[in-house]
Every structure is written in C-alpha cells, then in structure tokens.
Amino acid sequence: MNNNNSAKKVKMNGNGESVIDNIRREYSDYKGGALQLTKDDTTGIADICINAFERRNALSGTMMSQLSDIITQLEQWEQGKAVIIHGSNGFFSSGGDLNTVRNIDNSDGGRRMALLMHDNLSRLQALPLLSVALIEGKALGGGAELTTACDFRVMSREAEIGFVHIKLGVTTGWGGGTRLVQMLGPCKALDVMMSGRLIKAAEALNIGLVQHVISDCDTNDSNCVLSKCHEWLNSYTRHNAATLRAIKGIVNSARWLPTDEALKKEVEYFASVWGGPAHQKALGSNIKHK
Ligand SMILES: C[C@@H](C(=O)O)C(=O)SCCNC(=O)CCNC(=O)[C@H](O)C(C)(C)COP(=O)(O)OP(=O)(O)OC[C@H]1O[C@@H](n2cnc3c(N)ncnc32)[C@H](O)[C@@H]1OP(=O)(O)O
C-alpha cells in the first residue's frame, strides 16, 4: 500500500506529465555519483549503495531521480524481504549535493526538490519489506532524513547522525522532521533538529533513534560492518517472505490510516497468510518455541 497522495497522483502539468516526472527529468541534468541496487532473489535481501564518495556520498539531482526508479523496482520485487541502504567507503551520506542545491536555491526550487524527495521517501517507507539504514561515518542533513524513512537504523560504533539543517538556515526538506516526531516524540525531535548537533551511536541508541549499534568490528572495516548488519537482520529475514510482508503492511496501515481502517486491513493481511504454506508447515510440525 502506498501511504500518500504523492504529487504524481495529485498534480499533472499541461502536457500530461506528472509533476514528479517533470522534476525527475529536470534533476537528471544535475550529474554526479550513482545509486547501485543489487537484489538477491534467493535471500530476498536487496542492497542500495550510495556511491559518490568524492562528495561524501551526497545525493546529486541525478541520484535523487535514480532513487525513484530503484524504489519502483523494489515495489515490484515480490520475493523481497529486506533492503539495506548504506554509503560507499564507510560513509553514509552528507545529504543533498551542495552543487545541485546551489542550482535550486530559491523557494520554488526547494519546493520541487522537497516534492521529489517526499515522494521518494514516503514510497521507501511504504515498501512491503523491511528497510534498514546502515550508518557508518556520518549521516547529515538529507542523509539523516533518508535514514528516517527506513524501518530500522543500524550504526557502527564511531558513526554520527546530524540533522544539521538549522546550521544552513533551513528546515528538514525530505520529510525527516515529521518522521522524527513520530519516532521520538515532539520534545526530543525539537532537541535533535534545533540543536543541529552530531549524535553519536550510543546516544542515538539511547534515545531510540537507532535500533542497533555494531561495536565488534575494527574501525573502517566496512565489510565486517555490512556482514554484522546482515547477521542482525537475519533474526527477521529467516522467516518467510509472505508473512514478513504482511506484518509490514499491518504496520504501514497503522502508521497512516485511521484505526478502524487499519484494523480492517489487518484482517485482510491476516487472512492472506492464514492457511498458507508457512502456516501449514508449522501446523504439521512439533511446534516448540525456545
Ligand atoms: C538536502 C539538503 C537539506 O538540508 O535538506 C541537504 O542535505 S544540504 C547538505 C547538508 N550537508 C552538509 O552540510 C555537509 C557539509 N559537509 C561537511 O560537513 C563535511 O564535508 C563532511 C561531510 C563532514 C566531510 O568532512 P571531511 O573532513 O571528511 O571531508 P571534506 O569536508 O574535505 O569533504 C570531502 C569532499 O566532499 C565534499 N562534500 C562533502 N559534503 C558535500 C555535500 N553535501 N555536497 C557536495 N560536496 C560535499 C567536500 O566539498 C569535499 O570536496 P572537495 O575536496 O572537492 O572540496
């Protein structure tokens, strides 16, 4: 299910092109970097790597447009159980690429970027699979907001996350402010956004911004961090895809729908897996929960 009337459903421009498609076309001119998607149909786990290390994995316009395509692929990936989003070379992302940002530094330009990234991140959050932001190095500005659209955030011991927008004289522009309030409550969200400070892993875990800290890898050993993240994720992805996807659907419904509608959806998600292959297999075994 998608949670929002994204701009592409709400507004079309004169030549029948959606507003979002129009922005994506404009943004493909802002070059730099790439996002790489790999999907493993056997494990059901995908990986998105943010690849622009020369600019600390900042997202250029092209990359924002690419993110839209990648999310569409994941929306259509029926074997999907989870997706891990991480940055190249042990650095998550320093947010919007300031070279792109300098080309759109007026109110309408900002609004168009916000429309595209709100559509991207709302669809990312609505994906029928678990999403994990694996944070090494720093997640700053829009990079920090990108992590809030994932179901879970996992940090390496030395990593930091900073909603630094206020230091640039701006607010969150990719939906991260709203999601921070939903995650942390208004008081802690205000503290995080109005201070603009860099939050270390231990504090992030303590305030509930992050769900797991990987502390048993050597500094800068990104391969170790990624494999530990997969190990952590396995406690969820070892279960069957249909039930995982149904549970994510129930959570999404409760996030965005009125309670009575969310409960109706829950009945349907329940019915969709009850009596299914995983249920039958469990009923046919000597069930013992340890
Ligand atoms: C969407 C928007 C929003 O607010 O909603 C945003 O996210 S605005 C963006 C919010 N993000 C920021 O304000 C991050 C600003 N940058 C920094 O704080 C720093 O660069 C760090 C990201 C902590 C990296 O520091 P470190 O000392 O490791 O390296 P450095 O500063 O020499 O940066 C390495 C190279 O990456 C570039 N670089 C770093 N961040 C960039 C960015 N967001 N856009 C474009 N280029 C960037 C630097 O200019 C430099 O390129 P050269 O070697 O060629 O000089």
UniProtKB/TrEMBL annotation:
Pfam families: ECH_1. Keywords: Cytoplasm, Lyase. Its EC number is 4.1.1.94. It catalyses: (2R)-ethylmalonyl-CoA + H(+) = butanoyl-CoA + CO2; (2S)-ethylmalonyl-CoA + H(+) = butanoyl-CoA + CO2; (S)-methylmalonyl-CoA + H(+) = propanoyl-CoA + CO2. GO terms for biological process: fatty acid beta-oxidation. It is found in: Cytoplasm, Cytosol. Its main location: cytoplasm. GO terms for molecular function: methyl/ethyl malonyl-CoA decarboxylase activity. InterPro entries: ClpP/crotonase-like_dom_sf, Enoyl-CoA_hyd/isom_CS, Enoyl-CoA_hydra/iso. GO terms for cellular component: cytosol. PROSITE patterns: ENOYL_COA_HYDRATASE. Belongs to the enoyl-CoA hydratase/isomerase family. Decarboxylates ethylmalonyl-CoA, a potentially toxic metabolite, to form butyryl-CoA, suggesting it might be involved in metabolite proofreading. Acts preferentially on (S)-ethylmalonyl-CoA but also has some activity on the (R)-isomer. Also has methylmalonyl-CoA decarboxylase activity at lower level. PANTHER family: ENOYL-COA HYDRATASE-RELATED, ETHYLMALONYL-COA DECARBOXYLASE. This is Ethylmalonyl-CoA decarboxylase.
